[in-house]
């Protein structure tokens, strides 16, 4: 009986202080392990394809793709973070309190940078659709790189400050050995909520509504000129189709983003304090958004399918492959 009780503890040597394991049937534990491993592998692989494509092919070095590259980097790192959840299959954290604190800080920084990049992409599409004549002068590759750098710097500085207590005194909020928990104070929780959810969602929704209004007005104008056969009319129709596609893509992003992140932030809002456990199911759903991002952003573009084909067939190993026409 004693052996059975000890087997249910994360650290049997700490009988009265150890957390209890989450006991699953072997088949369930195996299913969880396989599912998490697959999601982690898929997230890393898809985002690596985006990273290699944009980095390697010179024709893809545009402001919009610089933003996509930042998103892919953050989401690829999230794929590696998912592997930590595999350790928590039985509900126990075996990597120590310091690694727990580092894990959470990295998690907050990376996911916030990912969300921030989504806002930048929305701004990019807003300017391209609503102010097309000024787009090339206002949105440049250098400015895109600067905005991406600021996004990562802000995410790093803010969450390093918000979680500095957990790093200075790791494990201070754990109720037992084998637990991985961090706590944000009231002000820190509000700041994180504004920075990681309310602010980005508000910005994306406002920009999308504006884009939608412009696209609808232009679609009506296009219908009134549908019988025109001049070259100018053909160009207008082509532009409007691309704008509509951008609006639809952005709409999908908004819906998926809300579906993946709202449960996590609802749990935070309903909790008495801002305590977050590394084993939370809402964390996994939050992570899964990073798996979907490359599918939503990259697979909507023909250049991605062409570049993936060149990557998988090892054509990128050729000396002149970086100049390949993939647009």
From TrEMBL:
The chain crosses the membrane at residues 30-54, 66-88, 94-123, 144-163, 193-216, 246-271, 283-304. Residues 46-297 form the G-protein coupled receptors family 1 profile domain. It comes from the Eukaryota. Its main location: membrane. One of its GO terms (molecular function) is trace-amine receptor activity. SUPFAM superfamilies: Family A G protein-coupled receptor-like. The keyword Transmembrane helix applies. Keywords: Cell membrane, G-protein coupled receptor, Membrane, Receptor, Transducer, Transmembrane, Transmembrane helix. It is found in: Cell membrane. InterPro entries: GPCR_Rhodpsn, GPCR_Rhodpsn_7TM, TAAR. Pfam families: 7tm_1. It is a multi-pass membrane protein. SMART domains: 7TM_GPCR_Srsx. This is G-protein coupled receptors family 1 profile domain-containing protein. It comes from Poecilia mexicana.
């Amino acid at each position: 009986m004693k052996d059975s009780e000890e087997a249910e503890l994360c650290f049997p040597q700490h009988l009265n202080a150890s957390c209890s394991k989450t006991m699953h049937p072997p088949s369930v534990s195996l299913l969880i392990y396989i599912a998490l491993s697959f999601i982690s592998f898929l997230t890393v692989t898809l985002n690596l394809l985006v990273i290699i494509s944009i980095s390697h092919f010179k024709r893809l070095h545009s402001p919009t793709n610089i933003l996509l590259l930042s998103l892919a980097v953050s989401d690829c790192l999230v794929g590696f973070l998912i592997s930590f959840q595999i350790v928590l299959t039985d509900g126990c954290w075996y990597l120590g309190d310091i690694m727990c604190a580092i894990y959470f800080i990295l998690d907050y920084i990376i996911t916030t940078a990912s969300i921030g990049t989504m806002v930048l992409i929305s701004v990019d599409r807003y300017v391209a659709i609503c102010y097309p004549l000024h787009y090339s002068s206002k949105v440049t590759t250098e400015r895109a790189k600067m905005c991406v750098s600021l996004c990562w710097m802000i995410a790093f500085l803010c969450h390093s400050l918000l979680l500095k207590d957990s790093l200075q005194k790791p494990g201070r909020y754990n109720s037992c050995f084998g637990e991985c928990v961090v706590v944000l104070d009231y002000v820190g929780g509000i700041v994180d909520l504004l920075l990681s959810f309310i602010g980005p969602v508000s910005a994306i929704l406002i920009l999308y509504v504006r884009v939608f209004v412009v696209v609808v007005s232009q679609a009506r104008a296009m219908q009134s000129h549908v019988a025109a056969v001049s070259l100018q009319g053909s160009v207008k129709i082509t532009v409007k189709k691309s704008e509509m596609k951008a609006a639809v893509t952005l709409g999908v992003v908004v819906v998926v983003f809300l579906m993946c992140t709202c449960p996590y932030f609802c749990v935070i809002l309903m909790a008495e304090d801002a305590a977050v456990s590394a084993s939370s199911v809402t964390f996994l759903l939050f992570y899964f958004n990073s798996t979907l991002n490359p599918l939503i952003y990259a697979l909507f573009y023909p250049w991605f399918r062409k570049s993936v084909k060149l990557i998988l067939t090892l054509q990128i190993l050729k000396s002149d492959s970086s100049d390949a026409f993939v647009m």
